[in-house]
Design brief:
Helix content is about 75%, strand content about 0%. The chain is mostly helical. The structure holds tryptophan.
């Protein structure tokens, strides 16, 4: 007897799961260092435009494709286009999940380790945080154990199922995450000298903006909204017909952006108040912030809360990446959920050992001036996600078609509606494909020609 497909038991459950996927290391770690190096508020404004005009139409399309077919990404494309190789777009998504989660779990492992270290006297004036971080990641063993621990928790949640695992966990962790972010932000903006950091976010500096900034803002929108690899197709496949897609997609992007901005207001005022460099790059969260916590009253408490926040945000994202592959094996190959979660999670762990070792015994492995982790990140976010997103939007707008897309998107309660005519469909058919194509080309140009 066929087992009935799981469904989110409430609209809020779906929104929190999807927002949980969206809110992750991308919002806190990636967003803050991108904004810090590329014009502060100017980057944020360009990012907002990218989220609304490119992220939103693609998010609605992905959720609709998932709900219309009730399938994993490979099965979804195959169902809607049985006689053409569009299922390959889903296959790119499954591949992307392997690439992203393998290194994502490594970085999440660093955050996990720092959560515990915060409780064991990490914030002493005698500690040089740059040196400490380098020492932490260049140990060949410990980061791999933290990576394993993080992956084990991810596997555990997915093994428990869509409702009893994912939905139950996000319903507890997401409110906690919002609360932690707000508490840390209040601490940060009330520090003496915080004004400069607040101004840094609110006054856009367009002199730092280049065409590449636009490219990075669009790529950031893809990454942070979890687009271009079928995660939202998979989560959409568990959505009830009566739940509205257009407004839910808006709420998901709104929550994701809200957390990114809160994170900005939590990080930059503190960085400025203690005279650190906002353009410190990827090390901002792991080097600059511990320096800030060292100088801050009650820094150990806020340091612990910050890294806890980072770990929780990473977990609600990593489960969505693992679920894509598990859903595919379950739907198409009739694997048991637990077996799929364990086998895939272990494979992803193994693939992630390489980027972790890229800071120690494999540090000589470099390509285009990137170590293994940066290479995985570049390949996933500059190539695979835009490619997947481009093919998905072409599929939605032209193959599946504007009429069917709008029918599915409009099904359910809610007042926001999209006709198959112009407006929204102009974004789907023209603006998004052209913009994503430009990102793909510019990304390749940036690496190989510039
Ligand atoms: N959105 C997450 C973040 O901001 C990362 C993530 C989860 C993701 N699932 C994804 C990125 C799917 C791309 C595709 O950290």
């Amino acid at each position: 007897m066929a087992e009935e497909r799981a469904q989110w038991t409430s609209r809020v459950g779906f929104i929190l799961a999807a927002a949980g996927s969206a809110v992750g290391l991308g919002n806190i770690w990636r967003f803050s260092y991108a904004a810090g190096t590329e014009g502060g508020g100017a980057f944020i404004l360009i990012y907002l435009a990218a989220a609304v005009f490119i992220g939103y139409p693609l998010l609605v399309s992905e959720i609709s494709i998932g709900r219309a077919t009730r399938k994993n990404p490979i099965g979804a494309f195959r169902t809607l286009a049985p006689n053409a190789p569009w299922w390959l777009v889903g296959a790119i998504g499954v591949l992307t999940a392997f690439v992203i989660l393998s290194y994502y779990s490594v970085v999440a492992g660093w955050a996990f380790a720092y959560t515990f270290e915060s409780l064991r006297g990490l914030y002493q004036p005698s500690v040089d945080h740059a040196e400490h971080f380098t020492k932490h990641i260049s140990d060949p063993v410990a980061p791999i154990l933290w990576h394993a621990a993080f992956m084990a928790i991810t596997i555990g949640v997915i093994a428990m199922g869509v409702v009893k695992g994912i939905q139950r966990v996000v319903q507890v962790l997401m409110p906690l995450l919002f609360l932690l972010a707000i508490v840390i932000m209040i601490r940060s903006i009330t520090l003496p000298g915080a004004g400069e950091g607040i101004a840094f976010i609110l006054t856009p500096d367009f002199s730092e903006v280049t065409p590449l900034t636009v490219l990075h803002a669009v790529a950031q929108a893809f990454f942070t909204i979890s687009l271009g690899m079928g995660a939202m197709i998979t989560y959409g496949s568990y959505l009830r017909k009566k739940d509205p897609i257009p407004s839910s997609a808006g709420t998901i992007i709104g929550l994701d952006t809200f957390v990114a901005i809160i994170a900005g207001f939590a990080i930059f005022p503190a960085v400025f108040a203690f005279g650190f460099d906002p353009a410190a790059g990827p090390g901002l969260a792991f080097i600059t912030l511990p320096g800030v916590f060292t100088e801050m009253p009650l820094g150990a408490v806020f340091g612990f809360l910050f890294f806890l926040l980072l770990t929780i945000a990473a977990l609600t994202s990593s489960i969505s990446l693992l679920e894509v592959v598990v859903a595919w094996l379950k739907d198409e190959h009739k694997w048991k959920r637990t077996k799929a979660a364990v086998v895939v999670g272990c494979a992803m762990f193994a693939i992630g050992v390489l980027p972790s070792l890229g800071y120690s015994v494999l540090s000589h492995v470099q390509a285009f001036e990137m170590n293994i982790l940066d290479l995985y990140d570049w390949f996933a976010t500059s190539i695979l996600l835009p490619l997947g997103g481009l093919l998905t939007i072409i599929f939605a707008g032209y193959v599946w078609g504007a009429r069917k897309l709008s029918e599915e998107a409009n099904e359910g309660t809610g007042k926001l509606r999209f006709g198959p005519g112009m407006g929204f469909m102009f974004l789907v058919k023209v603006v998004v494909p052209l913009a994503v194509l430009a990102v793909l080309i510019a990304g390749l140009y940036e690496k190989f020609a510039a």
